[in-house]
Specification:
With about 110 residues, this protein is mostly helical. Helices cover about 50% and strands about 0% of the residues. The chain has three helices and no strands. The longest helix has 25 residues. About 0% of the residues are buried.
Length: about 110
C-alpha cells in the first residue's frame, strides 16, 4: 500500500525570518490609551470571587428545585406500594440471596 507522508514543516530561512522580524519591529506601537484585549484565560483574576447575595442564593435554590422536580416527573417512587413491612423484608432477602447465587454461579462457570 502506498502511504502518503505528511508534509514536514520547514523552518524559515534566516534571511526571511530576519526580514519578517525587522518588519514587525518597524511597525508603530499601538497607543497606550487603547485597552488591551487579551483572552480571558490570560487576564489577571481577582483574589476572591464576590459572595452571592441572599436573593441570588434563593433564586438558585428555586431553579435547582424546579430542575429536580422536572427530572423526577414520570418516575415511579414506590414500586412495592402497600406491602407489609415484615413480608417485604423476607422477600427482599430472598431476592438478594437468589441474585448472589446467580452471580456466584456465573463467576464459577467462567
Amino acid at each position: 500500500s502506498n502511504v502518503t507522508e505528511k508534509p514536514k514543516a520547514r523552518a524559515l530561512s534566516p534571511t526571511s525570518f530576519g526580514a519578517s522580524l525587522t518588519h514587525l519591529l518597524s511597525l508603530p506601537a499601538p497607543p497606550s490609551h487603547v485597552p488591551h484585549t487579551a483572552p480571558s484565560h490570560l487576564l489577571p483574576r481577582a483574589k476572591g470571587s464576590p459572595k452571592p447575595s441572599k436573593l441570588e442564593k434563593e433564586a438558585r435554590s428555586l431553579v435547582r428545585q424546579e430542575k429536580r422536580e422536572l427530572a423526577e416527573r414520570g418516575w415511579v417512587s414506590d414500586v412495592i406500594g402497600g406491602w407489609a413491612g415484615e413480608r417485604e423484608k423476607r422477600l427482599r432477602r430472598l431476592a438478594q440471596k437468589g441474585v448472589v447465587r446467580l452471580f456466584n454461579a456465573v463467576r464459577a462457570a467462567q
